[in-house]
Amino acid sequence: MKLTDLLRPRQRSAFALPPWLAVLALMCALASCKSLPDVEPITPAKPAPTIETARGTLPLKQASLLTSKRWANAGTDLQALAAAEEQATGVPLIAGNRVSLLFDGPATMREMMDAARNATSNINLESYIFDEDEIGTQFADVLIQKQHDGVQVNVMVDAVGVLAVKPAFFDRMRAAGIRVVIFNPVNPAKAKGKWEVNNRDHRKLMIVDGRTAFTGGINISSTYANSSLFRSKYKKAKVDGDKVGWRDTHVKIEGPAVAALQYSFVNLWLEQAGSELTKADYFPPLAPVGDKILRVLATNPDGDFEIYKSLMVAIAESKKSVHITSAYFVPDQQIVDALVAAAKRGVDVKLVLPGVSDHGMIRYAGQAFYDQLLAGGVKIFELQIAVLHAKTAVIDGAWSTIGSSNIDRRSFIHNYELNVVVVDPAFGGAMESAFNEDLRDSKEVTLEGWRHRPWGDRIREWAASLAGYWI
Asked: Tell me: the pLDDT tens digits for 43-69?
């Protein structure tokens, strides 16, 4: 979430901030600035990571045997990486899952609505944005019908993300019996606890019957359902302004890891609603359904920076490649240093960043780091055929992360975010394939060319970088 997300419509000029938003930004700026932790090199205390299964925690010897078998063809020491990541985050891996990649809004919306229509017990939906538009109304109609059918539906949306949505849209859901929570109201009089307007729920999550979960970067909105030309036979050399699609990534998860995702929803619901969920079978027994091993990282402003630490450890442990796709890239110096250090030790470090953006100011703030990154051997590419909204990374072709968190301090420090880490060479191969296609649709930024950019752009970068902590 960005402060500039408060602006509508979503296509904005680079620095068009209304007076009331400037006041909000000033309020935030007056609050104490939190800093990200130093992430030092980690020597794992044990040779293999902790593995949770449907039957409980595996003994260390069995965990080591399982990961050795699953990761035998990884070409990198995934056991050491996974153990170091666990030591940094305190979060175990979960085995026995099926994970399916979903690209762009239309495919994701179809899968999510189909899953919702097949629900028999409960649907828990958490989204930063839930717009009252064609897609949002379709989704609401599906949820209302399921509630009428006896399925308990619970919806949690962020107050800033739905600021432009008329209350009647959610009142219609409530009238049907759906329980709706507006996360962290902008109006302090409506807050149930401590009013923290700067802390937003940026997660995107839907869990159906406690057995199937969807998460990633896609909100419930027609904007995000405007598909990009990813894997299309009809790619154009030039995108047409308002008609440009949105390039995003989501995942569908089945298996024991769904319980961890469900727990993240229930925990935040209790914190915000101040009451328990309506009775339903939210945690059914979950048998193994696949061979994917993953880690669920649900972070909050009072937490321990698990998503940030996970990414830092993976970059530091990289041996062959670091391939990052980032919609809003305004890193802190520690991430910049880690990327440059990886490039200098021979790792292929490539970033796919926006060439077309819905947040001009954020794009300029990220570009303020280009010179340092390019000079350090990091290769930068800007996607040309779509608005980039994906938040993914694949490291050494075997460690992958997909989720809601951007690479910026707002996501790492102030937002409630949700990422999943999948440690699997086959899944990593699918992520690499998607990254390479985005690479083909991107324009490389070279150091020589960058240093000849217009002075007007340099001034915008400098000005945007001053607000880099808050945007």
From this structure: 888 888 999 998 999 999 999 999 988
Question: Are the C-beta atoms of 179 and 186 separated by less than 8 Å?
Answer: no
What's the pTM value of the predicted model, to 2 decimals?
Answer: 0.91
- Cα distance between the two ends of the chain: 9
| pLDDT for the residue 19 | 45
Nearest-10 Cα torsion for 306, 464, 370, 300: 10
What domains are defined for the chain?
41-94+294-466 (3.30.870.10), 98-273 (3.30.870.10)
Contact 385, 365 (CB under 8 A): no
CA distance 400 to 201: 23
Residue holding tokens 């994917």?
292
62-89 b/e (C-beta count within 10 Å ≥ 16 → b): ebbebbeebbeebebebbbbbbbbbbbb
Q: Torsion angle of alpha carbons 325, 329, 331, 337, nearest 10°?
A: 40
CB contact at 8 A, 405 and 202: yes
User: In DSSP terms, which residues pair with 108 in a beta bridge?
Assistant: none
Interaxial angle between packed helices 134-148 and 167-175, expressed in degrees from 0 to 180 and rounded to the nearest 10: 20
Residue 235: pLDDT over 80: no
CA 169 to chain centre: 26
